[in-house]
Design a protein that fits this description.
With 178 residues, the protein is an alpha+beta fold. The protein has one domain: Porin. 15% of the residues lie in helices and 48% in strands. It has 2 helices and 11 strands; from the N terminus they run H-E-E-E-E-E-E-E-E-H-E-E-E. Strands 1, 4, 5, 6, 7, 8, 9, 10 and 11 form a 9-stranded antiparallel sheet that branches. A two-stranded antiparallel sheet has the order 2-3. The longest helix is centred in the N-terminal third of the chain and has 17 residues. It is globular. The termini are far apart.
């Protein structure tokens, strides 16, 4: 219950400043024409529509929101469920960042693009089940950077429960601009 109250308070605090922020709209249409040997059909390959906004809160602090969802360019419809891609709110400043929602995981941000950039080999799934997810729904993430040392932590909670399903911790160290 306490987690839900904290999440509601953070979401409410972020919603007001973002109401006056500039919103950027972007996306991509990734259509395809498929032939299976007997018929031609329209296909879709990850088309999406994205809304991003941020607002300066003063004193080096800012709030941000990102909502991205899949669009089926062959059918002209919006995809729902786990194909909804990214949807999160957050705050950032000199101290680091805090975000809540469906977002890229620490695993993806720290090592994902180096290990399997196109997710071809299947070792890291976009919506993982404990083996190292790229995207995490119902999650909270915190990151900070001090003197070239970064630390990121995230946790994913089930939509109806109070337990943590998955938690990941990652770090990067930058030495002399390397």
């Amino acid at each position: 219950m306490q987690k839900k109250l904290i999440a509601a308070a953070v979401a409410g605090a972020l919603a007001t400043p973002l109401a006056i922020a500039d919103v950027a709209v972007s996306g991509s249409v990734r259509g395809a024409v498929k032939y299976d040997g007997t018929e031609w059909t329209m296909g879709n390959s990850g088309s999406r529509l994205r809304f991003k906004a941020s607002s300066d809160l003063g004193n080096g602090q800012s709030a941000y929101v990102n909502y991205e969802f899949g669009v089926d360019s062959g059918l002209g419809s919006i995809q729902t469920g786990k194909t909804s891609r990214l949807a999160y709110v957050g705050m950032k400043g000199d101290w680091g960042s805090l975000s809540l929602g469906a977002q890229w995981s620490t695993m993806f941000n720290v090592v994902g693009t180096y290990i399997d950039p196109s997710n071809v080999y299947g070792g890291l799934g976009y919506w993982g089940n404990g083996s190292g997810p790229y995207r995490m729904a119902n999650s909270v993430a915190v990151s900070t950077n001090v003197g070239g040392f970064s630390l990121s932590v995230d946790a994913q909670m089930p939509s109806g429960g109070d337990d943590i399903d998955i938690a990941t911790v990652g770090t990067n160290i930058s030495v002399g601009g390397v």
